[in-house]
Structure formats: C-alpha cells, structure tokens
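User: Hi! I'm working on a homework problem where we have to compare a predicted structure to a textbook description. Could you give me the structure for the chain below?
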Amino acid sequence: MKIYQLSTLLFALILLLATCSENGQSNEQLTNKHEYLEKGKTIASATFATLSGKLQEAMQEGGVQNAVSYCNLAANPLVDSLAKIYNADIRRTALLTRNQANNPTARELRQFEIYRSTHKAGKTMNPVVHSIDPNTVAFYAPIQLMPLCEKCHGKVGESISSEDYEHIKKLYPQDEAINFATGDLRGMWSISFQK
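Assistant: Happy to help. Predicted structure tokens:
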C-alpha cells in the first residue's frame, strides 16, 4: 500500500513539475491562442511596416549612412510610441545584435534557439504565443533577412561598403549584426501584452 501511495505521489509531483514553466509560472493552456496570435501578428506587422518605411525613406534621402543614423536616433522611440498605441512591450532581439539593448532575455533566448534549430532543419518557423503569467501573453515570431537589409546587415566589402561599415561602427561600437544573407534568421519579434 505504501509503495502505491509513494508512486502515486511521485507521479503527481512529476506531473506538477512538467506543467510549470522554467520561470516558475504556470504554463497554462491559452484559451484564446488564435486571438493572441493574430494580435501579435498585427503589432509585429504594423511595427515592421513603420520601421521599414522610415528606413527606406532615410536611405533614399541619404544612403545607408543616413538610414543607420536615423535608426540609431529614431528606431527605439518609434517602437516605444507604437508600444503605447498597442499597449504592449515590443522588442526585436537576436543572438547577434547591433544595439546591445536588444540582447535576448533568458526566455527569448530559449525561443530563439527553437527557431534557429527549426531554420537549420529547413522547416517553417511559425509565430507562437506563450503565457508568461496569469495576465500576460508573449508573442514570438522569426525575422528573416530581406534583400534590402543586406545593405546594413550583409557582408562587409560585398553588400556593405567599408565606408558604410565604418559609420555603423561609430554609432554601434559593439556591432555583431553583420554577415547575414537574404533568408537568414536575423532575429525575432518578442511582443508581450495583457490577456
């Protein structure tokens, strides 16, 4: 009888541990998963459209150096203003960042590693949502490099001129966000909002 109770207790403990996320919060099933995915996609799409539109304008006005200078000054404030509109925390993160403020958190790093493995296997990377806590949802989506992005994130001496990269290094001395090609996994959207 004691062995049965002990094994039942052990099974219950294992089950309890399996249902908890690594940060100690309950990893409950999201009842409105589709709704949260759509909300995250909407926020990411609007943010991408705004950022890329402004960067293209800056590039047309003054080339790569003007676009990088614009990004250095205006990208974060622009994202912050969109975050207020959507009542969300909007981040772009990566393993190799240009702006060190975009380095991934432990939670983001776990998801990014999943995307990296999926990408290496040649499989489709899809947006996902997770419950962070009883009130907050995290939305993650991969960011793949587009052709225009190679002018700032490609290979120095090939798609990035040496002069342009010197300018990038002046603004971002710890830059690691180069040597990417179109289609590479460049980074990840990390957006959190209230349930």
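For your comparison, note the following. The first helix runs from residue 2 to 18. The mean pLDDT is 87. Good luck with the assignment!
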